[in-house]
Amino acid sequence: MSGTHLSLGIEEPFRRELELFPATVQDLRAVRASIRSPFYASPIHSPPADTDNARSTTMHLMYTADDKGLRVYTLKKVVGAEVSKSAHPARFSPDDKYSRHRVTLKKRYGLLITQQGDQKVIK
Prior knowledge:
This protein has two domains: 1-48, no CATH class; 60-115, no CATH class. A three-stranded antiparallel beta sheet has the order 2-1-5, with no helix packed on it. The chain is an alpha+beta fold. 29% of the residues lie in helices and 11% in strands.
């Protein structure tokens, strides 16, 4: 194997190692599959296509106010007949495409979406 290389997308550091330690094609494929890089997309390391689990991985912390006015944190959007509010602070960033819209609403109505009163669910 000295002087010749199998072209399987192996980077230069691995080529030097292959000159020292001859390997089979299956060994090279195993090395290539173990590399986690966007250039080496492998079905071995791809995440499972579990649609039921995809929804539960994203959590958005919400809260409702109790009788004393203290926050009660939850992950649900609606608790009983009360719509919960986002517990994440509003962020204003030049990269945020809706930031300008929120600033315009604040100037026009003097109120941010996060500063609105409580909302009830209509059944």
